Here is the input.
Amino acid sequence: MRLIDKLQGAIGAARQRDETVTVFYLDLDGFKPVNDEFGHDAGDQILSMVGERLTSRTRATDVVARLGGDEFVVLIDGHPEADAADALAERLHEAFSSPFTLDGRPVTVGASIGRAVFPTDAQDAEGLLRIADEAMFEAKRAVKARAGLRAVRAC
Here is the structure.
């Protein structure tokens, strides 16, 4: 897998330079209804637009990859400080702040985002992806919990 190769290379370089590597794992929220209502071709268009938005918020040296389904990974390396990763996390969230346009209609899709950092969270590529994936699921659970709380308050 090309992503694993890039991640392993980034970790090796970060070890030599005493820098960090950050992996963001994104899973789209509200994507299934797009496929159900508009069809898979429309879903593919949304996935392409998501990739474009994510890429537009990263540096040319960062990696944006679709893992499959509605999951994406963003890899940033060469950052000795956490502030750069925090700023990117904010830009990734902003990528979903406005609706996508599909056949002239606004379509809202969000994302749950998890993050893992080398060397703090894991020492290898597989470990970073696993930790970022777990953090993403924690973020997804938090979103669902907040939605449930809003539903209870609305009653």
In short: The two ends are 48 Å apart (CA to CA). The helical segments are 2-17, 32-38, 40-56, 82-94, 125-154. The first strand starts at residue 20 and ends at 29.
